[in-house]
Design brief:
By secondary structure, the protein is mainly alpha-helical. The chain contains eight helices and eight strands. The structure holds iron/sulfur cluster.
Length: about 190
């Protein structure tokens, strides 16, 4: 597997720039703020080998106590065979590998479409957070009618940046990025 971290960093910068634009455009619906870590408390977090190797470079610089604690938390999750779990890299509501966090974490909170066009919305819409104002409790889906009724300046828009779509972007090919096998984050630890 090609582990060209320099090119991967370029890829991340481009994705971050796109995601920032999406957040900016949809800011009326976004409730992400420092201290909210709901996205890191419930999930299975698919991660490729490249992403894992990249963020482990930062994880390796952490204090020994953090490293021991991450391992202990991971062992408990594996013993309990949890499908959805709190990420072991979350400490006091903050990610200890934030700068090099996986791609899926960078996509937390946005409305996306998977490659088959199926809409994917952040689960926090149901928790009174992102896009909750336009979340229709009856249909369990987002409602454009609600956005119009509530006079939002822009309509919520699904972006084609699901995790699978991001892995297959032409830019990845251009930069000769090989992601390697994808597994649940916990299965790498
Ligand atoms: S790696 Fe960081 S951002 Fe991603 S789920 Fe874990 S704590 Fe959250």
């Amino acid at each position: 597997m090609n582990t060209n971290f320099e090119n991967y960093k370029k890829f991340l910068d481009s994705i971050d720039s796109d995601i920032n634009k999406i957040f900016e455009y949809q800011k009326e619906y976004i409730h992400c703020k420092k201290g909210c870590s709901l996205c890191c408390e419930r999930g299975d977090y698919p991660v490729s080998e490249l992403e894992f190797n990249y963020f482990m470079r930062q994880a390796d610089t952490l204090d020994e106590n953090f490293k021991r604690n991450i391992k202990e938390k991971a062992d408990i999750i594996k013993q309990k065979n949890l499908e959805s779990y709190t990420c072991p890299f979350l400490f006091d509501g903050e990610c200890v590998i934030y700068k090099s966090r996986p791609l899926v974490c960078r996509l937390f909170g946005v409305l996306t479409e998977d490659k088959t066009g199926h809409p994917v919305y952040p689960f926090c819409a149901e928790e009174g957070l992102n896009f909750s104002e336009v979340f229709d409790e009856t249909t369990r889906h987002l409602s454009l009618d609600l956005a119009i009724k509530k006079n939002f300046k822009v309509l919520p828009r699904f972006c084609k940046l699901s995790y699978q779509v991001v892995l297959n972007l032409p830019l990845a090919k251009e930069l000769n990025i090989e992601f390697g096998k994808t597994k649940r984050l916990i299965d790498f630890l």
